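Escalation from tier 1.

The customer reports that the assembly of two entities below gives different structure tokens on two consecutive runs. Tier 1 could not reproduce it. I'm attaching the input and our single run for tier 2 to review.
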Amino acid sequence: MKPIPIVIKIIKRKMKARSQECCCRIFEKNAQGAKC
Amino acid sequence: MTVVPDINELLKYINPRVLKRYEKDYPDSPLKPEELFEELLKYFWLSHQHQSDKADSPSDESLHFDCIMHAEMQEMDNMWHTFILFTKDYADFCNHYFENFIHHYPILDGDAELPPEEYEMDLYRYLTYIHNQLGEATLRKWFKEDK
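Tier 1 run:
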């Protein structure tokens, strides 16, 4: 699949910042979706 | 079972009291409360759609990421906090649209840290998913890429 320019741009900016700062998550880490 | 509501139905939900309270608590917020609330609803929808997709296709590696609220999404997180203050409205909303309570897990310093390569891959998958599900405008808004 062809990379999406805006996706690449955001990744470059965030990787350059070397910060993984985050606020919160909606599901617990590694939560698996339950099959319907 | 992950319930994923119709996004157009979900986006019809409004709660003037939440918006008013947000305006009072965050008078300097750069985005209008109505706009932020809509972005929060889209985040709820996306996260549940992602859970459902993962359940349907557990071996699909493009779905191997967490729908985390990144630092750029701080205002959306603040709106979420405001919504949660109205406990009954929030619980009723969750039950009506998602048939489940939507929890909020704060991330403490470092507990979501990944090795750089893993972080980059996770981010690539997450951003691509947002783009494909909700479009470029939403992705730009969430990650503050206005230009």
